[in-house]
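Memo to structure team: turn this sequence into structure tokens by end of day. - J.P.
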Amino acid sequence: MSGDIPLNINIKEPRWDQSTFMGRAQHFFMVTDPRNVLLSSEVLEDARVTVENYRTGIVKPGLTEDQLWRAKYIYDSAFHPDTGEKMLLVGRMSAQVPMNMTITGCMLTFYRTTPAVVFWQWVNQSFNAVVNYTNRSGDAPLTVNQLGAAYVSATTGAVITALGLKSLTKHLPAIIGRFVPFAAVAAANCINIPFMRQRELKHGIPITDAEGKRLGESTKAAQQAIVQVVVSRIGMAVPAMAIPPVIMNALEKKAFMKRFPVLNAPVQVGLVGFCLVFATPLCCALFPQKSSMKVSGLEPELQERIRQSSPHTTTVYFNKGL
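Reply from structure team:
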């Protein structure tokens, strides 16, 4: 139990105050840092060992507080908060910017033909399905059949939505057509996230008291968590899918872009990436990761159970997922 730092640093919680938007924003700028995608398995494993050892009172000699927090954020970026398992690389929040800038840029560039709309909406919703599964709340596993049904339902609903919106804008100005991908993504998020997290809606997610003691599973908490995630995801898409179309609509009229149309996709992807670097952490920060609700808002039978087992508890907490 030797080391250069005290053993009472609470690394179960973020480094910054999560009751304020700025504190949450600082936290998520670290969690969604795209550079974390490039970290090797050895670095991730070293961070995991450092964090788990510290929690048990073992401190690596020479470890500083900054190094401990760095290890904690590397750990948080790659390992699921409820299950502790290493998350799929493309499903991690640190992969959101590089993956979304590529997919969204292509969606905004190749939106004029039906096959292109179908293909890129399918790619986007397949990616979203992986992200939604990877960042689900709770520790109960999904079966292959449940996962397959959720994926098919989510992607089919999203593609149909995109095609329906595209057909409605055929006779409208070109600038309106450019916003079809955003409208489709917003609508699809409302379909994809609940489908991919349907087990939570059926069986609930773990809820705890302020000390972290597990009190049961709640479907009401799951509903609140999923609504917050849907709002955050749509918020992420707003700057990345609303600003570049306006800029590109103006740029495409310039002689330079007409002479080099091949630049359309790279410029669009770059603009989307710039927006996402800021939109992703700021929209993740709209709601606390450790969300809460009053006991009175839970299911009646769960309220009764909590009153009996923990009568002084008035608020419960849960991981809302991302």
